[in-house]
Amino acid sequence: MRRAVALSLGLVLGLLPGLVGPPPTYAAGETGPDLVVTRGSVRVTGERVVAALVVTNGRGARARAAGRSVVRLTAERAGRAVVLGSRPVPRLAAGHHARVRFAVPTARLQPGRYTVRACADPRHRLRERSERNNCRVLGRVTVRTTSTGALCTTRLCDPLDVARGTEVPYTDASGSYWVYVPDDGSDAPYRVLIWLHGCGGDHGDIWGAADYWGYHYIAIVPDGAEGGCWSMSTGPDRVLRTVASLTAHFDIDPRRVVLGGYSSGGDLAYRTAFLHAERFAGVLAMNTSPFRDNGTTPSDAAQAAWRFPVVHLLHTDDETYPEAGVDAELADLEDLGYPVTRLELAGTHWDEPTDPDNPTDGTWHDFQEVLVKGHMDDDWVSP
Protein backbone atom coordinates (compact mmCIF):
# COMPACT_ATOMS: atom_id res chain seq x y z
CA MET A 1 0.00 0.00 0.00
CA ARG A 2 2.80 2.39 0.83
CA ARG A 3 6.19 3.12 -0.59
CA ALA A 4 8.70 0.56 0.70
CA VAL A 5 10.58 2.94 2.99
CA ALA A 6 7.45 4.53 4.35
CA LEU A 7 5.89 1.12 4.99
CA SER A 8 8.93 -0.12 6.89
CA LEU A 9 9.03 3.01 9.03
CA GLY A 10 5.27 2.96 9.58
CA LEU A 11 5.30 -0.65 10.71
CA VAL A 12 8.14 -0.03 13.14
CA LEU A 13 6.38 2.96 14.64
CA GLY A 14 3.01 1.23 14.69
CA LEU A 15 4.18 -2.03 16.19
CA LEU A 16 6.65 -0.61 18.69
CA PRO A 17 5.34 2.84 19.62
CA GLY A 18 6.43 2.48 23.25
CA LEU A 19 10.06 1.89 22.23
CA VAL A 20 10.66 5.16 20.37
CA GLY A 21 11.61 8.49 21.90
CA PRO A 22 13.73 9.25 24.98
CA PRO A 23 13.69 6.87 27.97
CA PRO A 24 11.36 7.78 30.86
CA THR A 25 12.71 9.50 33.99
CA TYR A 26 11.71 8.71 37.57
CA ALA A 27 12.10 10.22 41.01
CA ALA A 28 14.90 9.04 43.29
CA GLY A 29 14.31 5.39 44.22
CA GLU A 30 11.28 5.13 41.95
CA THR A 31 11.02 2.55 39.17
CA GLY A 32 8.75 2.42 36.14
CA PRO A 33 5.51 0.43 35.93
CA ASP A 34 5.91 -3.20 34.92
CA LEU A 35 2.86 -5.17 33.78
CA VAL A 36 3.26 -8.94 34.05
CA VAL A 37 0.81 -11.80 33.50
CA THR A 38 1.61 -13.58 36.75
CA ARG A 39 -0.64 -16.64 36.39
CA GLY A 40 -3.48 -18.02 34.33
CA SER A 41 -5.25 -21.01 32.84
CA VAL A 42 -7.02 -21.88 29.60
CA ARG A 43 -9.37 -24.60 28.33
CA VAL A 44 -11.77 -25.27 25.47
CA THR A 45 -15.39 -25.61 26.54
CA GLY A 46 -17.80 -26.48 23.75
CA GLU A 47 -17.02 -23.99 20.97
CA ARG A 48 -15.29 -21.43 23.16
CA VAL A 49 -11.78 -20.82 24.43
CA VAL A 50 -12.12 -19.92 28.11
CA ALA A 51 -9.16 -18.28 29.88
CA ALA A 52 -8.63 -16.70 33.29
CA LEU A 53 -5.49 -14.76 34.20
CA VAL A 54 -4.00 -12.16 36.53
CA VAL A 55 -2.14 -9.02 35.43
CA THR A 56 0.13 -7.44 38.08
CA ASN A 57 2.01 -4.15 38.10
CA GLY A 58 5.49 -4.95 39.44
CA ARG A 59 6.28 -5.82 43.01
CA GLY A 60 8.17 -2.89 44.47
CA ALA A 61 6.53 -0.27 46.65
CA ARG A 62 8.30 2.48 44.70
CA ALA A 63 7.05 1.37 41.28
CA ARG A 64 5.06 3.94 39.34
CA ALA A 65 1.36 3.29 38.75
CA ALA A 66 0.47 1.82 35.34
CA GLY A 67 -2.20 3.60 33.32
CA ARG A 68 -5.16 1.87 31.68
CA SER A 69 -4.14 -0.76 29.15
CA VAL A 70 -5.29 -4.06 27.63
CA VAL A 71 -4.29 -7.71 27.69
CA ARG A 72 -4.40 -9.72 24.45
CA LEU A 73 -5.06 -13.46 24.04
CA THR A 74 -3.54 -15.32 21.08
CA ALA A 75 -3.58 -18.92 19.87
CA GLU A 76 -0.35 -20.05 18.16
CA ARG A 77 0.37 -22.97 15.89
CA ALA A 78 3.06 -23.65 13.27
CA GLY A 79 4.52 -20.19 13.66
CA ARG A 80 1.20 -18.39 13.11
CA ALA A 81 -0.63 -16.45 15.81
CA VAL A 82 -4.38 -15.83 15.73
CA VAL A 83 -5.64 -13.01 17.94
CA LEU A 84 -8.63 -14.25 19.95
CA GLY A 85 -9.49 -11.02 21.73
CA SER A 86 -8.42 -8.21 24.06
CA ARG A 87 -9.73 -7.14 27.43
CA PRO A 88 -9.19 -3.88 29.32
CA VAL A 89 -6.86 -3.66 32.32
CA PRO A 90 -7.62 -0.79 34.73
CA ARG A 91 -5.03 1.58 36.13
CA LEU A 92 -2.90 -0.44 38.59
CA ALA A 93 -0.92 0.89 41.54
CA ALA A 94 2.42 -0.74 42.35
CA GLY A 95 1.96 -4.36 43.44
CA HIS A 96 -1.74 -4.37 42.58
CA HIS A 97 -3.37 -6.81 40.18
CA ALA A 98 -6.43 -7.27 37.99
CA ARG A 99 -8.24 -10.50 37.19
CA VAL A 100 -9.20 -10.90 33.52
CA ARG A 101 -11.42 -13.50 31.88
CA PHE A 102 -11.96 -14.47 28.25
CA ALA A 103 -14.67 -16.62 26.65
CA VAL A 104 -14.16 -16.38 22.89
CA PRO A 105 -15.44 -18.50 19.96
CA THR A 106 -13.21 -21.21 18.48
CA ALA A 107 -14.69 -20.57 15.03
CA ARG A 108 -11.63 -18.56 13.89
CA LEU A 109 -9.34 -21.54 14.58
CA GLN A 110 -8.81 -24.50 12.31
CA PRO A 111 -8.90 -27.88 14.06
CA GLY A 112 -5.59 -28.63 15.78
CA ARG A 113 -3.41 -28.14 18.84
CA TYR A 114 -2.68 -24.54 19.92
CA THR A 115 -0.46 -22.77 22.42
CA VAL A 116 -2.44 -19.98 24.07
CA ARG A 117 -0.52 -16.88 25.15
CA ALA A 118 -1.60 -13.77 27.07
CA CYS A 119 0.32 -10.47 26.66
CA ALA A 120 -0.21 -7.38 28.79
CA ASP A 121 0.10 -4.03 27.00
CA PRO A 122 0.81 -5.85 23.69
CA ARG A 123 1.33 -2.68 21.63
CA HIS A 124 3.63 -1.07 24.23
CA ARG A 125 1.43 1.94 24.84
CA LEU A 126 2.87 2.21 28.37
CA ARG A 127 6.55 2.83 29.01
CA GLU A 128 7.50 0.05 31.39
CA ARG A 129 10.58 -0.89 33.35
CA SER A 130 10.80 -3.97 31.14
CA GLU A 131 9.08 -4.75 27.84
CA ARG A 132 10.36 -8.36 27.85
CA ASN A 133 8.13 -9.90 30.53
CA ASN A 134 4.63 -8.91 29.38
CA CYS A 135 3.65 -12.30 27.94
CA ARG A 136 2.88 -15.68 29.50
CA VAL A 137 1.88 -19.02 28.00
CA LEU A 138 -1.35 -20.08 29.69
CA GLY A 139 -1.39 -23.61 28.30
CA ARG A 140 -2.18 -25.73 25.24
CA VAL A 141 -5.64 -26.54 23.93
CA THR A 142 -7.11 -28.71 21.19
CA VAL A 143 -9.73 -27.34 18.80
CA ARG A 144 -11.69 -30.17 17.20
CA THR A 145 -14.41 -28.47 15.12
CA THR A 146 -15.45 -25.08 13.83
CA SER A 147 -18.97 -23.90 13.14
CA THR A 148 -20.36 -20.64 11.78
CA GLY A 149 -23.89 -21.37 10.55
CA ALA A 150 -25.73 -19.54 7.78
CA LEU A 151 -26.41 -15.81 7.91
CA CYS A 152 -30.01 -14.72 7.31
CA THR A 153 -30.54 -11.73 5.07
CA THR A 154 -33.40 -9.60 6.44
CA ARG A 155 -33.28 -6.87 9.09
CA LEU A 156 -33.03 -8.22 12.66
CA CYS A 157 -33.78 -11.75 11.45
CA ASP A 158 -31.39 -13.28 14.03
CA PRO A 159 -31.27 -10.98 17.11
CA LEU A 160 -28.03 -11.16 19.08
CA ASP A 161 -28.01 -10.18 22.75
CA VAL A 162 -24.41 -9.38 23.75
CA ALA A 163 -22.89 -7.97 26.92
CA ARG A 164 -23.19 -4.19 27.05
CA GLY A 165 -20.33 -1.81 27.77
CA THR A 166 -17.48 -4.14 26.81
CA GLU A 167 -15.75 -5.60 23.77
CA VAL A 168 -17.40 -8.81 22.54
CA PRO A 169 -15.88 -11.06 19.83
CA TYR A 170 -18.37 -12.71 17.49
CA THR A 171 -18.20 -15.02 14.48
CA ASP A 172 -20.86 -15.96 11.96
CA ALA A 173 -21.03 -16.72 8.24
CA SER A 174 -19.88 -13.15 7.46
CA GLY A 175 -16.58 -13.65 9.33
CA SER A 176 -15.30 -12.53 12.71
CA TYR A 177 -15.47 -9.12 14.33
CA TRP A 178 -15.41 -7.34 17.67
CA VAL A 179 -18.36 -5.25 18.76
CA TYR A 180 -19.04 -2.73 21.54
CA VAL A 181 -22.70 -2.05 22.36
CA PRO A 182 -23.15 0.85 24.81
CA ASP A 183 -25.11 0.34 28.00
CA ASP A 184 -27.09 3.57 27.66
CA GLY A 185 -30.61 2.37 28.43
CA SER A 186 -32.06 3.46 25.08
CA ASP A 187 -34.26 1.18 22.97
CA ALA A 188 -33.94 3.28 19.80
CA PRO A 189 -32.21 1.77 16.75
CA TYR A 190 -28.44 2.18 16.99
CA ARG A 191 -26.20 4.22 14.79
CA VAL A 192 -23.01 2.38 13.75
CA LEU A 193 -19.30 3.14 13.50
CA ILE A 194 -17.30 0.56 11.52
CA TRP A 195 -13.64 1.28 12.35
CA LEU A 196 -10.67 -0.04 10.31
CA HIS A 197 -7.22 -0.08 11.97
CA GLY A 198 -3.91 0.85 10.33
CA CYS A 199 -0.99 -1.36 9.26
CA GLY A 200 0.27 -3.42 12.18
CA GLY A 201 -2.86 -2.64 14.18
CA ASP A 202 -5.63 -4.90 15.39
CA HIS A 203 -9.08 -4.98 16.91
CA GLY A 204 -7.80 -3.26 20.06
CA ASP A 205 -8.74 -0.03 18.27
CA ILE A 206 -12.31 -0.75 19.35
CA TRP A 207 -11.48 0.80 22.72
CA GLY A 208 -10.93 4.12 20.94
CA ALA A 209 -13.99 3.77 18.70
CA ALA A 210 -16.39 2.70 21.49
CA ASP A 211 -19.34 4.87 22.52
CA TYR A 212 -18.47 6.22 25.98
CA TRP A 213 -20.29 9.46 25.20
CA GLY A 214 -23.96 8.52 25.20
CA TYR A 215 -24.28 8.98 21.43
CA HIS A 216 -26.11 5.63 21.06
CA TYR A 217 -24.00 3.92 18.42
CA ILE A 218 -22.50 0.44 18.05
CA ALA A 219 -18.75 0.33 17.38
CA ILE A 220 -17.48 -2.61 15.37
CA VAL A 221 -14.01 -3.66 14.20
CA PRO A 222 -13.98 -6.35 11.46
CA ASP A 223 -11.39 -9.10 11.26
CA GLY A 224 -9.39 -9.46 8.06
CA ALA A 225 -6.10 -7.65 8.61
CA GLU A 226 -5.01 -8.36 12.20
CA GLY A 227 -1.37 -7.24 12.51
CA GLY A 228 -1.15 -6.31 8.82
CA CYS A 229 -2.45 -3.90 6.17
CA TRP A 230 -5.88 -4.04 4.57
CA SER A 231 -6.34 -5.46 1.08
CA MET A 232 -7.90 -2.92 -1.24
CA SER A 233 -9.23 -5.72 -3.46
CA THR A 234 -10.95 -7.90 -0.83
CA GLY A 235 -11.43 -5.29 1.90
CA PRO A 236 -14.63 -3.66 0.58
CA ASP A 237 -16.39 -7.02 0.48
CA ARG A 238 -15.27 -7.70 4.06
CA VAL A 239 -16.82 -4.40 5.15
CA LEU A 240 -20.08 -5.10 3.33
CA ARG A 241 -20.33 -8.54 4.93
CA THR A 242 -19.91 -6.87 8.31
CA VAL A 243 -22.82 -4.54 7.49
CA ALA A 244 -24.92 -7.57 6.54
CA SER A 245 -24.14 -9.25 9.85
CA LEU A 246 -24.97 -6.12 11.83
CA THR A 247 -28.28 -5.84 9.99
CA ALA A 248 -29.18 -9.45 10.84
CA HIS A 249 -28.14 -9.34 14.52
CA PHE A 250 -28.66 -5.81 15.86
CA ASP A 251 -31.40 -3.20 15.79
CA ILE A 252 -29.45 -0.67 13.75
CA ASP A 253 -30.55 2.27 11.63
CA PRO A 254 -29.22 1.29 8.17
CA ARG A 255 -29.13 4.96 7.11
CA ARG A 256 -26.78 5.91 9.95
CA VAL A 257 -23.75 3.65 9.31
CA VAL A 258 -20.48 5.61 9.46
CA LEU A 259 -17.26 4.19 8.04
CA GLY A 260 -13.94 5.21 9.59
CA GLY A 261 -10.27 4.31 9.52
CA TYR A 262 -6.68 5.22 10.31
CA SER A 263 -3.86 4.99 7.72
CA SER A 264 -4.42 1.74 5.74
CA GLY A 265 -7.88 1.52 7.33
CA GLY A 266 -8.61 5.04 6.11
CA ASP A 267 -7.57 4.02 2.60
CA LEU A 268 -10.10 1.19 2.72
CA ALA A 269 -12.79 3.41 4.27
CA TYR A 270 -12.53 5.89 1.40
CA ARG A 271 -12.46 3.16 -1.27
CA THR A 272 -15.46 1.31 0.16
CA ALA A 273 -17.44 4.51 0.59
CA PHE A 274 -16.77 5.72 -2.97
CA LEU A 275 -17.75 2.36 -4.48
CA HIS A 276 -20.76 1.72 -2.20
CA ALA A 277 -21.82 5.19 -1.11
CA GLU A 278 -25.48 4.23 -0.81
CA ARG A 279 -24.60 2.06 2.20
CA PHE A 280 -22.89 4.72 4.32
CA ALA A 281 -23.80 7.98 6.06
CA GLY A 282 -20.28 9.41 6.09
CA VAL A 283 -16.55 8.84 6.56
CA LEU A 284 -14.21 9.58 9.48
CA ALA A 285 -10.60 9.40 8.28
CA MET A 286 -7.26 9.92 10.02
CA ASN A 287 -3.67 10.11 8.71
CA THR A 288 -4.59 8.73 5.30
CA SER A 289 -5.55 10.11 1.88
CA PRO A 290 -8.71 9.77 -0.24
CA PHE A 291 -7.13 8.30 -3.39
CA ARG A 292 -3.36 7.81 -3.29
CA ASP A 293 -3.06 4.23 -2.03
CA ASN A 294 -6.47 2.63 -2.49
CA GLY A 295 -6.80 2.37 -6.27
CA THR A 296 -9.54 4.98 -6.63
CA THR A 297 -9.52 8.33 -8.43
CA PRO A 298 -11.64 11.50 -8.41
CA SER A 299 -13.59 9.85 -11.24
CA ASP A 300 -14.72 7.12 -8.82
CA ALA A 301 -15.73 9.77 -6.30
CA ALA A 302 -17.64 11.62 -9.01
CA GLN A 303 -19.63 8.48 -9.82
CA ALA A 304 -20.54 7.72 -6.18
CA ALA A 305 -24.26 7.42 -5.40
CA TRP A 306 -24.21 10.59 -3.27
CA ARG A 307 -21.87 13.19 -1.79
CA PHE A 308 -21.47 11.86 1.74
CA PRO A 309 -19.89 14.04 4.46
CA VAL A 310 -16.22 13.55 5.34
CA VAL A 311 -14.25 14.50 8.43
CA HIS A 312 -10.54 14.13 7.75
CA LEU A 313 -7.99 14.55 10.56
CA LEU A 314 -4.37 15.00 9.48
CA HIS A 315 -1.13 15.49 11.42
CA THR A 316 1.00 18.26 9.99
CA ASP A 317 4.28 16.31 10.15
CA ASP A 318 2.90 12.96 8.98
CA GLU A 319 5.81 11.38 7.10
CA THR A 320 3.64 8.65 5.57
CA TYR A 321 0.84 10.86 4.25
CA PRO A 322 2.42 14.32 3.81
CA GLU A 323 0.09 17.27 4.30
CA ALA A 324 0.49 18.77 0.81
CA GLY A 325 -0.67 15.62 -0.99
CA VAL A 326 -3.59 15.10 1.38
CA ASP A 327 -4.71 18.73 0.99
CA ALA A 328 -4.72 18.40 -2.80
CA GLU A 329 -6.91 15.29 -2.70
CA LEU A 330 -9.31 16.81 -0.16
CA ALA A 331 -9.59 19.82 -2.48
CA ASP A 332 -10.55 17.41 -5.29
CA LEU A 333 -13.37 16.07 -3.09
CA GLU A 334 -14.60 19.57 -2.29
CA ASP A 335 -14.57 20.47 -5.99
CA LEU A 336 -16.83 17.45 -6.58
CA GLY A 337 -19.31 18.75 -3.99
CA TYR A 338 -18.37 16.59 -0.99
CA PRO A 339 -18.87 18.36 2.36
CA VAL A 340 -15.34 18.02 3.81
CA THR A 341 -14.34 19.01 7.34
CA ARG A 342 -10.55 19.22 7.55
CA LEU A 343 -8.98 18.92 11.02
CA GLU A 344 -5.29 19.77 11.37
CA LEU A 345 -3.23 18.93 14.46
CA ALA A 346 0.47 18.87 15.25
CA GLY A 347 2.07 15.44 15.09
CA THR A 348 3.55 12.69 12.93
CA HIS A 349 1.97 9.48 11.62
CA TRP A 350 2.06 7.95 15.11
CA ASP A 351 2.87 9.77 18.37
CA GLU A 352 2.86 8.61 21.95
CA PRO A 353 1.21 10.97 24.49
CA THR A 354 3.39 13.33 26.49
CA ASP A 355 1.77 12.03 29.70
CA PRO A 356 0.67 8.38 29.25
CA ASP A 357 -1.33 8.43 32.50
CA ASN A 358 -3.37 11.50 31.52
CA PRO A 359 -3.08 11.83 27.74
CA THR A 360 -4.01 15.17 26.20
CA ASP A 361 -2.10 14.64 22.97
CA GLY A 362 -0.75 11.82 20.78
CA THR A 363 -2.33 9.81 17.99
CA TRP A 364 -4.57 7.65 20.18
CA HIS A 365 -5.91 10.72 22.02
CA ASP A 366 -6.62 12.51 18.72
CA PHE A 367 -8.36 9.43 17.29
CA GLN A 368 -10.61 8.95 20.30
CA GLU A 369 -11.24 12.47 21.58
CA VAL A 370 -11.03 14.67 18.48
CA LEU A 371 -12.28 12.43 15.67
CA VAL A 372 -14.67 9.94 17.29
CA LYS A 373 -15.96 11.90 20.26
CA GLY A 374 -15.94 15.10 18.25
CA HIS A 375 -17.99 13.83 15.30
CA MET A 376 -19.95 10.64 16.00
CA ASP A 377 -22.76 12.91 17.24
CA ASP A 378 -22.98 14.76 13.90
CA ASP A 379 -25.99 12.52 13.13
CA TRP A 380 -25.28 11.95 9.45
CA VAL A 381 -27.97 10.18 7.45
CA SER A 382 -27.62 8.50 4.06
CA PRO A 383 -30.34 9.04 1.43
From TrEMBL:
Residues 1-27 form the signal peptide. The keyword Hydrolase applies. Residues 33-136 form the CARDB domain. Keywords: Hydrolase, Signal. SUPFAM superfamilies: alpha/beta-Hydrolases. It comes from the Bacteria. PANTHER family: FERULOYL ESTERASE, UNNAMED PRODUCT-RELATED. This is CARDB domain-containing protein. It comes from Nocardioides conyzicola.
